[in-house]
Design brief:
The complex is a heterotrimer of chains A (270), B (296) and C (356). Chain A contains 13 helices and 2 strands. Chain A has 270 residues and is mainly alpha-helical. Chain A has one domain: MetI-like fold. In chain A, 45% of the residues are buried. Chain B is an all-alpha fold and 296 residues long. Chain B has one domain: MetI-like fold (Orthogonal Bundle), CATH 1.10.3720.10. Chain B has a two-stranded antiparallel ribbon with strand order 1-2. Chain C is α+β, with helices and mostly antiparallel strands. In chain C, 25% of the residues lie in helices and 34% in strands. In chain C, the strands form 4 sheets. A 6-stranded mixed beta sheet of chain C has the order 6-7-8-3-9-10, sandwiched between helices. Chain C has a 6-stranded antiparallel beta sheet with strand order 13-12-11-14-20-21. In chain C, strands 15-19-16-17-18 form a 5-stranded antiparallel beta sheet, with no helix packed on it. In chain C, strand 12 and strand 13 form a beta hairpin. In chain C, helix 3 packs across helix 4 and helix 3 runs parallel beside helix 5. Chain C is elongated and about 75 Å long. Classes of the chains: A mainly alpha (270), B mainly alpha (296), C alpha+beta (356). Chains in contact: A-B, A-C, B-C. At the A-B interface, helix 1, helix 2, helix 4, helix 5 and helix 6 of A face helix 1, helix 3, helix 4, helix 5 and helix 6 of B.
Chain lengths: 270, 296, 356
């Protein structure tokens, strides 16, 4: 009976992976074609395979600098988000304090506004503070939606750790920082991995704020990609190639945090 | 977040302070600006007239708005009904250990990493019956499919695109949640003679409650604010079949280039989402803390 | 209630060649029906592995496990009808205490009225009758462990209850209450109980017989008394007792035994060659210079612990601990004293094993 169930799950998984990969395959397919070929015929493989799209991205500075800029501010943002979220999540998870439930919910409300009308105020604020067109500026702006998410995710995982572990550590003479780093963090590895990945992901794909707050120096790849509409129409091929390349950093990130996510909770000998 | 047995400690506020500073900087100041606009008639940068709640009243009287709201609610509900169970099922079937686990994890996460305008651009081609894999496949099976012409097809395409794009979010959260269940629970369930369904219902699902809450709220919020995907794919059409709330707002604001009503609408928009999320949040908290009736 | 016999070994790899490849070295052991046993040893000694093999969560790489004579080596925990209590409480959060206790019975399709009766009995035994309708998730750790235990006891035909360090997360001042409760349950229900721990106090107070293990080997099986008085292995001597047994190297030849440079006359037959003498701090006595069986030693440390005085003395390069009663006159640091090391309690070891 176990084998039959296992089989059903495998079939389901295979079907889903197929569903997930087909559009991506199509994107890769498109990235190796020319625009004319994309718009004229249907083919599984490029009939005239061309590397020109990728070449254009790697050689044109305005393209590859976009990737670098994005990577920089996304990395800054992820680090800051996690650093401030960890102690806050611990507080929400372990203690009761005045207004705690309300503040916890309020955090999430910061993600509930369609960004469109926020753009002008953000623009004004950042110009005043001198953070326009800087990586730090975009990183700070993205804290708006990433910090609440990180706090929520981490709090959930922290609440799954029995408080006896904290207490045992104090009895054993651990100071709070030492306890947090050497005992607690390894136990919530899955949560840290998930939170890190989501911070990366949401910051990486965010378009509106990133485009509004940058012009030249910190222009991210998402903004560069919107440039692909020109007088001759949409540059599908280059966009597809850029899209393929956009996946690579994220895939690397999730590869690095996979152990954190997969190992989960190990109730070790305390 | 359970309110059981937590010691009261007001000094915990210090731990929360950094978060508040970050979010306040990004949120409160801009929010105040928006509130400021929403009660003024900005005729030109120099001339502003205070109009109080006039914009809010006008927005509420708008019939087209209510229609867009209805469509939006239908869409978000469909999204939740499909993505949550599918995400849970996916998380349950993803292998937990070994190289297969890593490979599947990366493959599943790929769709989340593509910028949203690229997602919809790809699907634009993907769905064309002449040059796209999906469209072509449907056409060769004899199914009539046209996502720009038919309202149903447009709706379904936007929905399927969203499911393809965002189910992995639910799945990843649930997967991490499942990994946090110690082996001993499964061992105890075996010893107690529990069926696979009982294990799901009494061990896995309850332990996933935290992550599921995040997944539900996130998907609801983001689908309620969805803009790029339907706009680029179908332009809101055919007609206004896929004109959801965000697009309606932008049409009004950009079309008339009037910050006042746009700001007012944004605040109402925000309050609607807030209301729904608040209700969802409290409902899920209550369900978690209620006694589950076990069949005799 | 069942008698469990083990005749097995468990290796990490398919073709074990040396001792370190084994999680459990080849052993043969019997747990009689209704006995209370403890598996005692330091972390990594294989006790949890043995427990999981008994419970069916692990299949040994070679050998058999039999329950009342029936081969159950590959049987599931359900088929063996065992119950297991883990290091941390494992309960169903969404259910009440009563529903938790009823769960195993419902899965076996026991009629509802019988379930109710049985749940009531077990709750009574665990002093939880007043909490039956409370949600299990909100209770303290010791109550949750009692529920875990109760789920195991609720099946009247349970063959054995296995415990894997169950008091780890319990408050120290509640531990003794739970230990007492376990002993009470053992008396009343006469179940086979097997208890894994690294704490000798738990093991010695709980069990009728203790299996002392180290590095995959079961070095001695015996009652608390036997382990204390006649440890079969130097490891047991060292592990049991607080502090453990003292050891001195000695050389035996032609009727005399030279200990710490002093030739002594042994009181029993001894094999020739290098030996180790083991004697517990409780049995070392200060005596007069030159007394039979005594060696000179220099006092290094004197600790007054309230109920007794612990001396650390050095004799022939080895540090010995001597336990004196508070009313004995205690020497000062630096004094030379004579310590009687040979008497009826002394154990003699050759190659770490007891020989006399």
């Amino acid at each position: 009976m176990n084998e039959k169930r296992f089989h059903k799950r495998s079939i389901f998984l295979v079907l889903y992976i197929l569903f997930a990969l087909l559009p991506i395959y199509w994107m890769i397919n498109m990235s190796f074609k020319t625009n004319e070929e994309i718009l004229s015929s249907f083919s599984f493989f490029p009939q005239q395979l061309t590397w020109a799209n990728y070449a254009r991205i790697f050689t044109d500075e305005s393209w590859y600098s976009g990737y670098i800029n994005s990577l920089i501010y996304v990395a800054i943002n992820t680090v800051i988000s996690l650093t401030v979220a960890l102690p806050a999540a611990y507080a929400f998870s372990r203690y009761s304090f005045l207004g705690d439930k309300h503040v916890f919910f309020w955090l999430l409300t910061n993600r509930m506004t369609p960004p469109a009308v926020f753009l002008l105020p953000f623009f004004q604020l950042y110009t005043t503070v001198g953070l326009m067109d800087t990586h730090l500026g975009v990183a700070l702006a993205h804290l708006l939606f990433n910090v609440p998410l990180a706090v929520w995710i981490l709090e959930g995982f922290m609440s799954g750790i029995p408080r006896e572990i904290d207490e045992t550590a104090y009895i054993d003479g651990y100071s709070f920082p030492r306890f947090f780093v050497t005992i607690f963090l390894p136990l919530i590895k899955a949560g840290v991995g998930v939170a890190a990945f989501f911070c990366f992901m949401f910051s990486w794909v965010e378009l509106l704020l990133a485009r509004t707050l940058t012009s030249v120096n910190a222009k991210p790849i998402v903004a560069t990609m919107t440039r692909t509409v020109s007088a001759s129409g949409m540059d599908w091929a280059t966009l597809a190639a850029a899209g393929v390349l956009t996946i690579v950093p994220g895939a690397i990130v999730i590869w690095f945090v996979r152990h954190y996510i997969a190992k989960g909770f190990a109730m070790g000998r305390v | 977040m359970n309110a059981t047995n937590k010691p009261i400690n007001q000094k915990a506020w210090w731990l929360v302070l950094p978060v508040l500073v970050c979010v306040a900087f990004s949120a409160i100041v801009p929010l105040m600006t928006v509130v400021n606009y929403s009660v003024q008639d900005i005729i030109s940068p120099e001339r502003r007239v205070f109009v109080g709640t006039e914009w809010f009243a006008a927005v509420m009287r708008d019939d087209e708005l209510l229609e867009a709201l209805g469509r939006q609610l239908g869409f978000s509900l469909s999204v939740l009904l499909v993505e949550i169970p599918l995400g849970i099922a996916l998380a349950l079937s993803m292998p937990a250990k070994g190289w297969k686990s890593s490979a599947v994890l990366v493959v599943v996460a790929l769709s989340l990493l593509i910028p949203w305008n690229v997602v919809v651009t790809i699907w634009q081609i993907y769905g064309r019956t002449d040059i796209g894999l999906f469209g072509h496949a449907l056409a060769s099976m004899g199914i009539e499919y046209n996502y720009t012409g038919s309202a149903t097809d447009a709706w379904l395409t936007v929905l399927v695109m969203d499911v393809w794009h965002w189910t992995p979010l639910v799945a990843l959260l649930c997967f991490a949640g499942l990994r946090s269940i110690p082996d001993a629970y499964y061992q105890a369930a075996r010893i107690d003679g529990a069926s696979k369904f009982a294990v799901f219902r009494y061990i896995q699902l309850p332990k996933m409650r935290g992550v599921l809450m995040i997944a539900v709220l996130l998907r609801f919020m983001d689908s309620f604010m969805i803009y790029t995907e339907p706009f680029v794919l179908t332009g809101g059409g055919p007609g206004n079949a896929t004109t959801f709330l965000s697009q309606y707002l932008t049409q009004k604001a950009v079309g008339q280039f009037d910050l006042g009503p746009a700001a007012a609408f944004s605040l109402i928009y925000f309050l609607i989402i807030l209301l729904f999320c608040f209700v969802l949040y409290n409902w899920m908290q209550r369900v978690g803390t209620q006694q589950v009736e076990v069949e005799q | 209630m069942a008698r469990i016999d083990l005749d097995l070994a468990h290796a990490y790899r398919p073709n074990p060649t040396q001792d370190s490849d084994y999680a459990l070295l080849p052993l043969k052991m019997s747990f009689r029906d209704g006995g209370a046993y403890a598996l005692l040893g330091p972390s990594g000694c294989g006790k949890t592995t043995m427990l999981n093999i008994i419970s069916g969560l692990l299949v040994p790489s070679q050998g058999t496990v039999t329950f009342d004579g029936r081969d159950m080596t590959r049987a599931t925990p359900q088929e063996r009808n065992i119950a297991q209590v883990f290091q941390f409480p494992v309960i169903y959060d969404t259910m009440t205490v009563a529903e938790n206790l009823a769960f195993p019975l419902r899965n076996r399709k026991v009629p509802a009225d019988q379930i109710k009766k049985r749940v009531g009995e077990i709750a009574e035994m665990l002093d939880m009758s007043g909490q039956l309708n409370q949600r299990a998730a909100g209770l303290a750790a010791d109550a949750k462990q009692k529920i875990s235990l109760g789920r195991g006891l609720v099946r009247s035909d349970v063959s054995a209850v296995l415990f894997d360090e169950p008091l780890t997360v319990i408050d120290p001042h509640l531990k003794w209450q739970l230990r007492r409760k376990l002993k009470q349950i053992h008396r009343e229900l006469k179940l086979t109980l097997i208890y894994v721990t690294h704490d000798q106090v738990e093991a010695l107070t709980f069990a009728e017989e203790v299996v002392v293990m180290t590095r995959g080997k079961a070095v001695q099986v015996g009652s608390a008394d036997a382990l204390f008085e006649r440890p079969a292995h130097t490891f047991v001597g060292h592990f049991i007792g607080s502090p453990g047994m003292n050891f001195l190297s000695a050389q035996s030849a032609n009727g005399t035994i030279e200990v710490a440079g002093t030739p002594l006359v042994p009181t029993r037959e001894l094999p020739q060659g290098p030996l180790k003498i083991g004697i517990r701090p409780e049995y070392l006595r200060l005596s007069n210079a030159g007394a039979a069986g005594a060696v000179p030693a220099v006092v290094k440390q004197v600790q007054d612990v309230g109920t007794h005085v612990m001396l650390s003395v050095e004799a022939g390069g080895s540090l010995l601990k001597v336990r004196l009663h508070s009313d004995d006159r205690s020497p000062a640091v630096g004094d030379t004293v004579w310590v009687r090391v040979l008497d009826t309690h002394t154990c003699y070891y050759k190659d770490e094993e007891l020989v006399a």
